[in-house]
Design a protein that fits this description.
The chain has 255 residues and is an alpha/beta fold. It folds into two domains: 97 residues, Ribosomal protein L30/S12 (60s Ribosomal Protein L30, Chain: A, 2-Layer Sandwich), CATH 3.30.1330; 143 residues, 3-Layer(aba) Sandwich (Alpha/beta knot). It is 31% helix and 20% strand. It has ten helices and eleven strands. The protein has a six-stranded parallel sheet with strand order 8-7-6-10-9-11, with helices on one face. The chain has a five-stranded mixed sheet with strand order 1-4-3-5-2, with helices on both faces. Strand 9, helix 8 and strand 10 form a beta-alpha-beta unit. Helix 6 packs parallel to helix 10. The longest helix is centred in the middle third of the chain and has 13 residues. It is elongated, with a radius of gyration of 20 Å. The N and C termini lie far apart (52 Å).
């Protein structure tokens, strides 16, 4: 157990980068998990952190499952922990874990494809929906928010640890998928709820979810086996991509 008090300590500098820089994990090959909920979710899925970090005020009351989770413990004064934290209200504890090895696409898995979905909150929410509705693989194309970034991790609320994640690949990598591709469109295609009622949605499948403003790229959309619409009787022009994802994935899970 090490007590570190200097904000210029190399480890403290690295923790600050991991907590506040959305792409620092790619260079470091390490990921910062901040807060008890995220850390508990990681432990529940068998993640073995390499380092546990505690604010000085929390350590005396920290449960054994946290203090014994990692081979190394670092303690920081509360003010220093607050300095590295990426949260408005620092959680006073966190884990550092190794970045999982780059994953290959599983050809027959129920999949969500993120095509330049740029908002970290949307990406994290989609990961939660994928996990909840039985989609085991998420493929993020280049241009999407970094899957292991701190903001996406917080929005994902632990969903990362139960999913097969493929991050930052080019569209040609999708050639490895052997399941039908499905896309949504505001103006064309059968209505999703009608396909659900007639059990006409393929299963397993890969849902293509596109950029918040531009949607799925035309190149990917034309390769979809099916394009569907979500009924909006209230008259809105379109749905937030995370909301649309939840509707589509739920419909697939109930087919």
């Amino acid at each position: 157990m090490n007590l570190i008090t200097s904000r210029d300590n190399p480890l403290v500098k690295e923790l600050r980068r991991l907590a506040q820089d959305s792409t620092a994990y790619r260079k470091s090959k390490r990921v910062w998990l901040e807060g008890d909920h995220l850390c508990r979710a990681a432990l529940a899925r068998g993640v073995k952190p390499e380092l546990a970090v505690f604010a000085e005020s929390l350590l005396p009351s920290a449960p054994d499952e946290w203090t014994q989770a990692a081979p190394r413990i670092v303690v920081l004064p509360d003010a220093l922990f607050q300095d590295i934290s990426g949260l408005e209200s620092p959680a006073r504890m966190g884990f550092v874990m190794h970045l999982p090895e780059a994953q290959h696409i599983l050809p027959n898995a129920a999949t969500v494809v993120l095509d330049r979905v740029q908002d970290a909150g949307n990406v994290g929410s989609i990961l939660r929906s994928a996990s909840a509705f039985g989609f085991t693989q998420v493929v993020a194309l280049k241009g999407s928010a970094a899957v292991w970034s701190p903001k996406v991790l917080r929005a994902g609320m632990g969903a990362h640890f139960g999913l097969h994640l493929v991050d930052g690949v080019t569209p040609d990598a999708l050639d490895a998928l052997h399941v039908p591709w499905l896309a949504t469109d505001v103006h064309q295609g059968p209505f999703l709820h009608e396909l659900q009622q007639t059990r006409s949605l393929p299963k397993p499948c890969a849902w293509l979810l596109g950029h918040e403003g531009q949607g799925v790229s035309p190149e990917l959309a034309q390769r979809a086996a099916l394009t569907v619409r979500i009924a909006q009787p209230g008259g809105e022009e379109s749905l937030n991509v995370a909301a649309a994802a939840a509707i589509c994935l739920y419909a697939s899970s109930c087919t």
